[in-house]
Specification:
Radius of gyration: 22 Å
Distance between the termini: 73 Å
Strand content: under 5%
Number of helices: 10
Shape: globular
Order of helices and strands: HHHHHHHHHH
Largest sheet: none
Helix content: over 70%
């Protein structure tokens, strides 16, 4: 049986908590996109402002309970969305049954070991298809953004570039401290954080600061505005 608190009683450490907080922000961004895409995959209309927070709170509750048993943070899995699109199976009962099977495998180690004999080529081939579908869904979601707006385009471009940088150049952060390198080498965390910061700068702070100036310029020179 799983042992509660296998690493001892919880101890608060700010330096250890900061990377996890940034990962949590990245997980929230990931859960947002996956909630929307998953709803579209099953043909269900949702209110994003209410459905996404419920998904995030569910991940947080699962992470809290799992942490009591020594497990890492839990996030909504994008592979599930790819499987739904590939197989066309949209029943929530199938998902619940798969969860029961996984729980049973956690208690039946010999069965889990038997599944590990599956040829790596089969697992790799299936994974390629599933992740390719996820990539296409991501491109489909980005296409809905107003990319004709230069600030939106710049936000997407910089976030994608910095998110892909540790994958395209594996040793780019080799000289950084180990704690910082762990965070920077996570493309999802860096991409989500950069996108959130640029979105705030361009679409919130920038509008508040530049708004009165723009209105004054238009009022002073209406011909130039025309």
């Amino acid at each position: 049986m799983p042992q509660p608190l296998p690493f001892g009683a919880p101890v608060f450490d700010l330096l250890a908590a900061l990377p996890l907080m940034l990962y949590s922000v990245a997980s929230m961004a990931e859960a947002t996109g996956q909630t929307v895409i998953n709803a579209e995959a099953v043909g269900k209309d949702i209110d994003v402002r209410s459905a996404v927070p419920r998904t995030v709170r569910g991940d947080a509750l699962t992470s809290l309970i799992g942490g009591c048993f020594g497990l890492p943070l839990m996030v909504t899995s994008g592979e599930n969305i790819g499987i739904v699109r590939v197989t066309g199976v949209r029943s929530r009962y199938v998902t619940a049954a798969a969860g029961v099977v996984l729980v049973a495998l956690g208690f039946l180690t010999p069965v889990a070991r038997a599944l590990s004999v599956m040829p790596p080529a089969v697992v790799g081939g299936a994974a390629m298809v599933v992740f390719a579908v996820i990539t296409v869904l991501g491109v489909q979601m980005l296409s809905r953004a107003r990319l004709e707006d230069h600030t939106t385009m710049l936000t997407c471009a910089v976030a994608l570039a910095l998110g892909l940088l540790p994958i395209l150049v594996p040793d780019v952060y080799a000289r950084f401290p180990s704690g910082v390198r762990i965070l920077l080498e996570s493309g999802v965390a860096v991409g989500a954080f950069v996108a959130a910061v640029l979105n705030i700068l361009f679409h919130h702070l920038g509008h508040r600061q530049a708004g009165p100036g723009r209105r004054t310029a238009k009022a002073a020179n209406p011909t130039a505005h025309a």
